[in-house]
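Lab notebook, bench 4. Still working through the backlog of constructs that have no structural model yet. Next entry is a single chain of 457 residues. Request: give me the structure tokens for it.
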Amino acid sequence: MNIKYIIAIFTITSIISCSDSFTTLAPISQRNTGAFYNTGTDMQVAVNAIYNTLKSNGCYNQSYWVLQELRSDNTFWDGTGLAEEITVFDKFTDISTSDITEDAWNDSYLGISRANIVLSRIDNVNMDAGLKERLKGEALFLRSLYYYHLAVAFGNIPLVVTETASVDEGLAHRQVDAATVYNQLITDLTDAESKLPASYSGADVGRATKGAAATLLGKVLLTNGDKPGAEAALRRVVSAGYSLVGNYADIWGVANEHNSESIFEVEFEGGFGDQGNSFTSQFNGDLAATVTSGQRNIPEQDLIDAYESGDLRFDATFDGVEPDNTGWPIKYGVENSFSEDDAANNWIVFRYADVLLMLAEAVGEGSEAYGFINQVRNRAGLPSIDGSSPGTFTQKLLQERRVELAFENHRWADLLRLGVAESVMSAQGKPINGKVLFAIPQRELDLNSNFSQNPGY
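Model written out:
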């Protein structure tokens, strides 16, 4: 039994927002919170609940790919009817009452609230000291992952790092800018990395590691403009023993989970009713006829055209690509689907190829940076590039990140971080019209008069 089964079995119900609903926690035995959080077992259950939130529709099961892939130049959704709710994100016509952004906000803050409860209470629990430190590290990493997505998507957000105990306390929260959030994450991830193990065995495989914390730290530091800091963090990942899988196609699928390249995955498990993923059904063209709103995350033609001749990643990334059909992404496969919207495929959040490409970005143009890029290119069967190859260093880096990491929730953040979102989207005929950030959900503005809306809405 590994962590995905453990999470499926041990789930706490908790509800929070930065507005009018606050923590109500009841473990499986239905004890109230006064009788909970008292033992090491209680705390393990509570941390498992933080992981469980990653699988919600507001996180990796739907909203995150809408906000990162569909928003970018990688994909579109040619849908009508129920699909209109999501197609607006591809067209930059989204509004502040969207369920997609509200779900992203609410579910991300739900994960944060669960982490805050653990971090606020665990020091008072008499339990094994080593386990206590590890659980604190896991909570800090997971809280940082939720906050990273919120900061990239919304920019100015409430930064809450302690348990919220009342409605009045929640309404007192204020927005802070993304840089302030990133600075907090740098502190938290540094702490998390010091507390987490390098690896796990048995049932704990899949939990956050030092490598996961350092990878997210490197990404946050790059986003916050600190390339030397990012370089140091990412070099620690490189020295930690991860390696590229020899065959790109062997990264994907249930049978290949937690391979040598994998750094952190969201653990889905079909057959438990609410623990499987729906994105497998939503992405795959073969299953589109059975999905109410049709195929989603359809690759843009210029993404397909971005792959060089002989790139071994192409056939492991797309299926159904023909002159009259742009096909569909197949990285997440169709296997082990118990029923529609109940597939077992994990979502790979971080993997080693991403680390190598981020390290190239942190180091900057030069032979060492091209060496990191070429490790990724050579695995794909492509020749090495260098400073004399066509294009600027940023263009070459973005190209490699695009084709290596397509459909993996990195593209929109990459375009923003490297300062080319407006030019890239305008070239595709989709001007941003000031919508660099997503709309703060209208419900939050209505509940908290201290909040202000992002530009463009």
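Notes after review: The CA atoms of residues 266 and 347 lie 5 Å apart. Confidence is low (pLDDT under 50) at residues 8-31. Flag for follow-up if needed.
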